[in-house]
Design a protein that fits this description.
11 helices; Haloacid dehalogenase-like hydrolase domain-containing protein 3; six-stranded parallel sheet; 2 domains; alpha/beta; about 240 residues; DNA polymerase, domain 1; about 45% helix; HAD-SF_hydro_IA_REG-2-like; 8 strands
């Protein structure tokens, strides 16, 4: 059946962009540059634990608690290093500032295979396009530096929206920004509950980017699964 789509909304992390190296490795490299020896594996473990605790204590970058994403991230970085044995507060402050800036850089992120081509072709076909991402205010800059920003009419982050996926209200804001009804819109992302199921819950179409051999997640109709981004065009041009 012909999908009469007007608007495509996109997740970013692990859909359009991915980190060039694991967090533990980039944190360890920055520590080395400042003369500190910290094991990447220890930092990776600490980061995962701290990130989980911070997300639980201050959801969506502490939006409702007056924290804000910059302070949220500085605290995560410092606490990750503290857990990995770095106690020098001056060093921690310097590491946190430097890494907060590094994660805005195109040296830190790379565009996923097929992303640039697929976005360009979707625009040529006349789709309106927007980003819906559980991300902080740095996302506009990151997309610009990775040469993707021009594909999108809007970039809606959870920090700006005040709601994080899977909350349907972030998708409702995106539909208003894109001037489309839910049945005229499709969301593309890599997370089953935050992207695929959440978009469908507000009445949108959705496609799940799921690389082959990526572990078995919940059942999704095969015509909704994208083994690569390049598969999208065939799905939406039916």
């Amino acid at each position: 059946a012909m999908l009469r789509l007007r608007l495509l909304t996109w997740d970013v992390k692990d859909t359009l962009l991915r980190l060039r190296q694991p967090v533990g490795q980039s944190y360890a490299a920055e520590a080395r540059a400042q003369g500190l020896q910290v094991q990447p594996e220890a930092l990776e473990r600490s980061f995962r634990e701290v990130y989980r605790a911070q997300s639980h204590r201050f959801p969506n970058y502490g939006h409702g608690q007056g924290l804000g994403s910059r302070q949220w991230w500085l605290d995560v970085v410092k606490q990750s290093f503290r857990l990995s044995g770095v106690q020098d507060e001056a060093a921690l402050a310097k590491l946190a500032e430097k890494l907060y800036g590094d994660y805005c850089s195109s040296h830190t992120w790379e565009v996923l295979p097929g992303a640039t081509d697929t976005l360009g072709r979707c625009r040529q076909l006349g789709f309106r396009m927007g980003v819906v991402s559980n991300f902080d205010s740095r996302l506009e800059v990151i997309l610009s530096r990775c040469n993707l920003r021009h594909h999108f009419e809007f970039v809606l982050t959870s920090e700006a929206a005040g709601f994080a996926k899977p909350d349907g209200r972030i998708f409702e804001q995106a539909l208003r920004l894109g001037g489309a009804r839910p049945e005229q819109a499709a969301h593309i992302g890599d997370d089953y509950s935050r992207d695929y199921r959440a978009a469908r819950a507000v009445g949108m179409h959705s496609f799940l980017l799921r690389a082959a051999g990526q572990g078995e997640g919940p059942e999704v109709p095969s015509e909704h699964v994208l083994p690569t981004l390049s598969h999208l065009l065939a799905r939406i041009q039916k």
